[in-house]
């Protein structure tokens, strides 16, 4: 279905895929970018998998924070967030240093391996072409995901992996510079919020929650997420939406 708000053609919904792999730079990026969509698909039988590129070790404003502990905490939180979405696939941590992610050849081989193992019908990732974005990891994670997709689909890349090549049917890029696809996530906002609230170590730095016990602060964060989904949804004529750049010719 295509509708045209403000002259831009936006497609609404694609069929629920059998498998989906979401590749994020940091623990929590997948939930912010596509959490409601993944929850909707998981409930409809899609096997949802996560791949997190960095260790999340910069995700604290406290200079005295124990970094090794933070890395371990963020993995636990990411697994809990995936469960909150209903994800039944794998949750892989590439373990690159937060803030120093590169879309290099070594990283490409490792991400291509995960794509070949998971065999996603839909690959979700950061839009690396998003203008004016400052965080280098988000750019690098987007390029890394797409570079790895190209490698994963071609049998002459990494034959030593012993894995069959795999070509996803569709790529959906979140934080998209030009949104041309919206998933209707009406009714799935709560799951996205619940998953985001599993990332408790990020409450101060990302969620703007100083005190997790303060219901007003949690409610304010929840409203922020709901307002964003409502705004995106409006552009596609639905109550709540997540927006993407969609690529079908992978
Ligand atoms: Zn991030």
Helix-strand blueprint:
Layout: E1 2-3, E2 10-12, E3 19-24, H1 29-43, E4 47-54, H2 67-85, E5 91-96, H3 105-118, E6 122-126, H4 136-152, E7 170-174, E8 181-184, H5 189-196, H6 203-207, H7 215-236, E9 241-247
Parallel strand pairs: 2-8, 3-4, 3-6, 4-5, 6-7
Antiparallel strand pairs: 1-2, 7-9, 8-9
Helix pairs in contact: 1-2, 1-5, 2-5, 3-4
The chain binds zinc ion.
Zinc ion (ZN) binds next to loops.
Which terms would index this structure?
binds zinc ion; 7 helices; alpha/beta; nine-stranded mixed sheet; 250 residues
TL;DR of this structure?
By secondary structure, the chain is α/β, with parallel strands linked by helices. The protein is built from seven helices and nine strands.
Task: Describe the protein's architecture and organization.
There is one protein chain. This protein is an alpha/beta fold and 250 residues long. It has 7 helices and 9 strands, in the order βββαβαβαβαββαααβ. Strand 4, helix 2 and strand 5 form a beta-alpha-beta unit. The longest helix is centred in the last third of the chain and has 22 residues, at 215-236. The chain binds zinc ion. The site of zinc ion has 4 residues, from loops.
């Amino acid at each position: 279905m295509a509708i045209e708000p403000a002259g831009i053609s936006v497609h609404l919904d694609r069929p629920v895929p059998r498998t989906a792999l979401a590749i994020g730079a940091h623990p929590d990026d997948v939930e912010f970018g596509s959490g409601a969509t993944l929850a909707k698909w998981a409930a409809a039988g899609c096997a949802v998998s996560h791949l997190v590129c960095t260790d999340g070790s910069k995700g604290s404003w406290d200079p005295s924070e124990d970094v090794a502990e933070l890395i371990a905490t963020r993995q636990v939180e990411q697994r809990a967030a995936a469960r909150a979405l209903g994800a039944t696939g794998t949750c892989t941590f590439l373990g690159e240093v937060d803030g120093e992610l590169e879309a290099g050849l070594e990283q490409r081989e490792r991400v291509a391996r995960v794509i070949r193992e998971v065999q996603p019908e839909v690959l979700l990732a950061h839009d690396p072409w998003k203008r004016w974005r400052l965080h280098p990891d988000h750019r690098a994670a987007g390029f890394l995901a797409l570079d790895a997709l190209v490698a994963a689909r071609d049998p002459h890349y990494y034959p030593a992996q012993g894995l069959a090549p795999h070509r996803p049917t569709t790529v959906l890029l979140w934080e998209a510079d030009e949104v041309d696809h919206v998933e209707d996530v009406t009714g799935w906002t709560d799951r996205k919020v619940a998953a985001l609230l599993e990332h408790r170590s990020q409450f101060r730095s990302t969620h703007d929650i100083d005190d997790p016990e303060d219901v007003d602060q949690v409610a304010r964060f929840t409203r922020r997420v709901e307002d964003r989904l409502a705004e995106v949804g409006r552009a596609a004529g639905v109550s709540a939406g997540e927006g993407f750049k969609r690529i079908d010719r992978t």
